[in-house]
Write a structure and sequence with these properties.
By secondary structure, the chain is an alpha/beta fold. The protein has seven helices and five strands, in the order βααβααβααβαβ. It has a five-stranded parallel β-sheet with strand order 3-2-1-4-5. The longest helix has 15 residues.
C-alpha cells in the first residue's frame, strides 16, 4: 500500500516529535509500505516557515529524502480533482494532498479530524 504523509505527520517524523501518533510511527517503520511526501507539504512549510512549524522547508525536504520518502509532484489532474471534494476542509494544502491521494490510489496519513470527514482516501491516526 502507498501512503501520502500530511504535512504535520512528516514534520513530526522529521523532528522525532512525541506528537507523532503511535499508529503513524508504526506505519512509518513498516518496510512493506511505500511512503510519499507531496510537494504541497514542502510548499506549505515554505509559506508557514520554521517559526510556525518548527522546521524549515529545506530541512523537511532533506529529512523526507533521508527517510526514503518519494516526492509526489502536483499534476494538473491533482489540481482538477480538488474541485470534486466536498467542502469539509478549507485548507488548500490539505485539500491538494487529499486530491493527490485519491487520484493516485494512496491513503493520506493524517491526524487532522477535519480530513477524517472525507473517509475514503484518509488513513486516520
Amino acid at each position: 500500500m502507498n501512503y501520502l504523509l500530511d504535512t504535520h505527520i512528516a514534520v513530526w517524523a522529521a523532528l522525532d516529535s512525541s506528537a507523532l501518533p503511535k499508529k503513524a510511527a508504526q506505519l512509518l517503520q513498516d518496510p512493506a509500505v511505500e511512503l510519499y511526501i507531496s510537494t504541497a507539504a514542502i510548499w506549505e512549510a515554505s509559506i508557514k516557515g520554521a517559526t510556525r512549524l518548527g522546521i524549515s522547508a529545506e530541512h523537511l525536504c532533506k529529512s523526507a529524502e533521508a527517510a526514503g520518502y518519494t516526492l509526489l509532484d502536483i499534476s494538473a489532474e491533482h489540481a482538477i480533482r480538488v474541485a470534486t471534494l466536498p467542502p469539509h476542509h478549507h485548507d488548500p494544502f490539505d485539500r491538494m494532498m487529499l486530491a493527490q491521494a485519491l487520484t493516485e490510489g494512496f491513503q493520506l496519513v493524517t491526524a487532522d479530524s477535519k480530513l477524517h470527514l472525507y473517509g475514503a482516501g484518509v488513513y486516520a491516526v
